[in-house]
Amino acid sequence: MRSLYILAPLLLLLSDLPSTIAKQPPKNAILLSQVQTLTLRGNGAKTTHRRLPAVPQLKCLSSSKICDLHDIDVLRCTNQGSGYDDEDTQWSCTANLPPTLKLGSTDVICEGYSSSEDPYVLKGSCGVEYRLALTKEGERRYPDIASGRSNNWFGEDHDTRRKSNISGYLFAIIFVAVFAWIVYSACMAQDRNRRLGGARRGGGGGGGWGGGGGGDGPGGWQPWNDPPPPYPGTKP
């Protein structure tokens, strides 16, 4: 009986062991809320991956003219606390940049361990998408870029906008040319019909009442060709 009392708690403990083990995350799964700092590297360094392909740890989203001015070697992000929930971690990122550039917005993106909704993320899978902008000094040093407004943080390139504008102008010119050709063709057709109509109305007008040459057709007077009025001293 004593052994039964000893085995009962042991069996209860063993029955809870699988659920306890199941609750333990894998060793390479972490919560971002428990991470205080992230260090990301450039020069083609890739993230670790499990479900998704590896991506660069650092990716510039500004225009190519801005991104080509400087490649960030190391970017460090510090945990600034959570937002709307515990795992909505807010980050503050810094990097060494030349005086012509400043760091814009940054987005930390990590791979969920088992799914995109998993609060646990794969260790080493985080990358940062960032944007660069010109400082006042940068605008003076690169006036061509500054005048093209290609230093915006949304990666909009002035060359792309210019090509789009040229395409719009060409379309407008073609549209106006086609419309003018249609109007011109309609006017020419109307004028041609007017000339042809006048020729038909003037045809077949010869003849008369003269003595030699006929033109009135056989059979004497026709309904549309009344005889001349009677002359004085003659009987009708």
Automatic annotation (TrEMBL):
<feature type="region of interest" description="Disordered">
    <location>
        <begin position="199"/>
        <end position="236"/>
    </location>
</feature>
<feature type="signal peptide">
    <location>
        <begin position="1"/>
        <end position="22"/>
    </location>
</feature>
<keyword id="KW-0472">Membrane</keyword>
<dbReference type="InterPro" id="IPR009567">
    <property type="entry name" value="SARAF"/>
</dbReference>
<dbReference type="Pfam" id="PF06682">
    <property type="entry name" value="SARAF"/>
</dbReference>
<keyword id="KW-0732">Signal</keyword>
<dbReference type="GO" id="GO:0005789">
    <property type="term" value="C:endoplasmic reticulum membrane"/>
</dbReference>
<dbReference type="GO" id="GO:0006816">
    <property type="term" value="P:calcium ion transport"/>
</dbReference>
<keyword id="KW-1133">Transmembrane helix</keyword>
<feature type="compositionally biased region" description="Pro residues">
    <location>
        <begin position="225"/>
        <end position="236"/>
    </location>
</feature>
<keyword id="KW-0256">Endoplasmic reticulum</keyword>
<dbReference type="GO" id="GO:2001256">
    <property type="term" value="P:regulation of store-operated calcium entry"/>
</dbReference>
<feature type="transmembrane region" description="Helical">
    <location>
        <begin position="166"/>
        <end position="187"/>
    </location>
</feature>
<protein>
    <recommendedName>
        <fullName>Store-operated calcium entry-associated regulatory factor</fullName>
    </recommendedName>
</protein>
<keyword id="KW-0406">Ion transport</keyword>
<keyword id="KW-0106">Calcium</keyword>
<comment type="similarity">
    <text>Belongs to the SARAF family.</text>
</comment>
<keyword id="KW-0813">Transport</keyword>
<feature type="compositionally biased region" description="Gly residues">
    <location>
        <begin position="199"/>
        <end position="220"/>
    </location>
</feature>
<keyword id="KW-0109">Calcium transport</keyword>
<keyword id="KW-0812">Transmembrane</keyword>
